[in-house]
């Protein structure tokens, strides 16, 4: 498989003092996360600990009650979310492709709507991205004609077509059949080695250990520990992390 081209320079992303409640459920309780430019941060933790909600605040899909998101050291809370989202791409567990559009239209949509590209330019860019994930031949098909792994590669191509400076991944392999997981993880590892700034929520502990520069363990809406993969996996400091690792490893 060919490598993914990312033209834009990497930028660091930070979450500072993020609080978010859904009704009386205080989901994020002062979360701090600092991801240096060009590095990959993995977030691990039990179900319900707030990982997806944190990622959504980092893409401005959810607005925190307090705290801020910074890109390249500058708060983005006053930016137009649609402009901001061109800089921070996101891939979801359930792909979130538009079912009524072709694969090509899925990838050109944001380029035309947000980047205001003409049809030809957008289609050329989309075909290039689809080729990079090995799916140029699927351009005229609806997502329903593709396997889960292929759909997720389309979602990745769609996000990368916007030339984001940061990529967020929320359990992107959790809905895939086991034999399709490796292909996605390999693309993500390539993207990481090319210097994309990435925040990856994952249950794939092998990926976190081998690809991440930094691993963050979240539980009950707080960051319990952050460190290098070896530190987190081989020398956990807290009882909570030790218990979590006993369950998943
Ligand atoms: P994780 O991704 O770690 O499994 P989530 O961020 O999805 O955790 O959820 C954290 C908590 O927030 C859970 O208690 C969940 O029920 C709640 N939650 C998440 N999204 C919403 C929402 N849109 N409305 C209400 N509650 C939500
Ligand atoms: Mg989640």
TrEMBL record:
Q: Which GO terms describe its molecular function?
A: ATP binding
Q: Where in the cell is it found?
A: Cell membrane
The cross-references to InterPro entries, in alphabetical order and at most eight, read:
AAA+_ATPase (IPR003593), ABC_ATPase_HisP-typ (IPR030679), ABC_transporter-like_ATP-bd (IPR003439), ABC_transporter-like_CS (IPR017871), MetN_ABC_transporter-like (IPR050086), P-loop_NTPase (IPR027417)
Which Pfam families does the record match to this protein? ABC_tran (PF00005)
**Keyword Membrane annotated:** yes
Report keywords, A-Z.
Amino-acid transport, ATP-binding, Cell membrane, Membrane, Nucleotide-binding, Transport
Q: What is this protein called?
A: Amino acid ABC transporter ATP-binding protein
């Amino acid at each position: 498989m060919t490598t993914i081209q990312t033209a834009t320079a990497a930028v660091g992303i930070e979450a500072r003092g993020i609080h978010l409640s859904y009704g009386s459920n205080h989901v994020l309780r002062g979360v701090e996360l600092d991801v240096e430019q060009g590095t990959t941060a993995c977030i691990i933790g039990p179900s319900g600990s707030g990982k997806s909600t944190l990622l959504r605040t980092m893409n401005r899909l959810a607005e925190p009650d307090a705290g801020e998101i910074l890109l390249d050291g500058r708060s983005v809370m006053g930016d137009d979310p649609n402009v901001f989202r061109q800089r921070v791409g996101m891939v979801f567990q359930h792909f979130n492709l538009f079912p009524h559009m072709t694969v090509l239209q899925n990838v050109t949509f944001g380029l035309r709507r947000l980047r205001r590209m003409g049809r030809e330019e957008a289609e050329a860019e989309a075909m290039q991205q689809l080729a990079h994930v090995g799916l140029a031949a699927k351009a005229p098909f609806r997502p329903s004609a593709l396997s889960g792994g292929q759909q997720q590669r389309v979602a990745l191509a769609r996000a990368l077509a916007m030339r984001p400076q940061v990529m967020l991944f929320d359990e992107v392999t959790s809905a895939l059949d086991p034999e399709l997981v490796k292909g996605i993880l390999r693309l993500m590892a390539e993207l990481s080695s090319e210097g994309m700034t990435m925040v990856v929520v994952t249950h794939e502990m092998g990926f976190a250990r081998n690809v991440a520069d930094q691993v963050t363990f979240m539980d009950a809406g707080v960051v319990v520990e952050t460190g290098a993969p070896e530190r987190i996996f081989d020398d956990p400091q807290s009882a909570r992390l030790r218990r979590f690792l006993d369950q998943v490893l």
